[in-house]
Design brief:
Layout: E1 9-11, E2 14-16, E3 21-22, E4 26-27, E5 32-34, E6 37-39, E7 45-47, H1 55-66, E8 73-75, H2 81-84, H3 87-93, E9 98-102, H4 103-108, E10 120-123, E11 128-130, E12 135-140, E13 150-154, E14 159-161, H5 179-190, H6 194-204, E15 211-213, H7 224-235, E16 241-249, H8 254-268, E17 274-278, H9 284-293, E18 294-304, E19 307-308, H10 310-321, E20 325-334, H11 341-349, E21 353-357, E22 362-364, H12 370-383
Parallel strand pairs: 7-8, 8-9, 9-10, 14-15, 16-17, 16-18, 18-20, 20-21, 20-22
Antiparallel strand pairs: 1-6, 2-5, 3-4, 6-7, 11-12, 12-13, 13-14, 18-19
Length: about 375
């Protein structure tokens, strides 16, 4: 797919559909884009490289865009291996090139590439790089989502090169909307770092941005206001939707039956949005996304080994590691003898910020009976 930005700014990224898991854990059914750009002016700047997985295609795209010219700068905004994987190849092809990066990136550089320190130009907040008619202004964005990250704003064309910010899962030609896979990407990769994202958004608010060029996902133009608005909601840890996400972990199917019954009850009572997932089978990253998306999280799980069934324990670990907060939580447990799931789940949530428990814990004894349905009805009233 040919991606057009402008006469002077060329897309040289590459996508893959061959990778099963991004970062060794996230399913990517629609592939993954590794974006990179070249600014052609009196001086030429390459904006990041790409993953080694796409090295051959990326290098070919680079040479085509350069059309025989020699680049002056490689701007390294983010050192993660999926963006720094071809620094060595660039240095071999263009030994005179200078590396432009943050001071933190310079300190970390030896972990990723053998670069002569004399070839590294460090930039701080507000510093510029003159290319001719194009000027890059650098914006420091530590912990969005690594400590060395910086963004670059090109003022003549009003383009923000945004590193991993505003990215999403999916190849560059994935036929899908932005928000769903961007949300899953954000909460699982960037989500822990809401405060640094808020700082970045305040900086971005002072810029006139017509195009965002992220390191993953599509180039953004017309949807920029909506994208910035969603990022503000997400990084503020505010729910995007009023509603309930039911996350359940069931051993023999009884808790699953109760969960689906609860979904039916909530919908009958007029809950504006109800989503449900089986933690044993569904994508855990999407379950993390849905917990952050909704105003209320209902966890329903079996008791197991004096605690809670492992898929729920794993899920709560994921939520805690991503700084889950500012939500209402309700609990349902199942047990054939010693009920322990609710206590274990509550202990995990008590380690998270601003969690409000809603209603009484419902304890089901193995199978779902009339009394259990009545208790679920009562809990649904308290939730909605």
């Amino acid at each position: 797919m040919k991606v057009e930005i402008s006469d002077s700014i060329k897309y040289i990224g590459a996508s893959t559909y061959d990778l099963d898991l991004f970062e060794g854990q996230y399913i990517i059914p629609n592939g993954m884009a590794y974006n990179s750009y070249v600014i052609l002016d009196e001086k030429i700047a390459i904006m990041d490289t790409a993953d080694k997985l796409v090295a051959e295609e990326w290098l070919e795209n680079l040479k085509t865009a350069l059309d025989g010219r020699t680049p002056d700068y490689l701007v390294v905004q983010h050192l993660e291996p999926d963006h720094s994987g071809n620094i060595k190849s660039v240095l071999e092809l263009y030994p005179q090139i200078e590396i432009v990066c943050s001071a933190k990136a310079k300190a970390m550089m030896p972990q990723f590439a053998d670069v002569d320190e004399e070839k590294i130009i460090t930039k701080k907040e507000g510093d510029t790089l003159e290319l001719g008619s194009h000027t890059l202004t650098f914006i420091m964005a530590p912990m969005v989502h690594w400590p060395e990250v910086m963004l670059s704003y090109e003022s003549s064309e009003k383009v923000l090169f945004s590193a991993d910010a505003f990215g999403k899962f999916g190849a560059i030609d994935a036929d899908e909307g932005w928000s769903c896979e961007a949300r899953r990407y954000y909460f699982n990769i960037v989500g822990k770092y809401g405060a640094p994202v808020q700082t970045l958004l305040k900086k971005a608010a002072g810029l006139e941005i017509e195009t965002i060029c992220p390191l993953h996902g599509p180039i953004l133009t017309d949807t920029i206001p909506q994208v910035l608005d969603l990022y503000n909601t997400w990084s503020s840890y505010e729910p995007e939707d009023e509603g309930v996400f039911i996350a359940y972990a069931s051993i023999h199917g009884n808790t699953a039956e109760a969960a689906h019954k609860m979904k039916e009850i909530l919908e009958t009572k007029g809950c504006p949005r109800v989503a449900i997932a089986d933690l044993s089978r569904d994508d855990i990253a999407e379950c993390v996304e849905d917990a952050f998306r909704h105003s209320t999280l209902l966890c329903m799980a079996s008791s197991y080994d004096g605690g809670v069934f492992a898929p729920m324990a794993d899920y709560l670990h994921h939520l805690k590691s991503k700084a889950f907060q500012n939500r209402k939580v309700a609990l349902v447990e199942n047990a054939s003898w010693a009920a322990s799931a609710a206590k274990a789940m509550k202990a995990e949530f008590e380690q998270m910020k601003n969690i409000t428990f809603v209603g009484d814990v419902v304890t089901i004894k193995t199978t779902v009976k009339a009394d259990d349905i009545a208790a679920l009805e009562k809990l649904a009233d308290e939730i909605k």
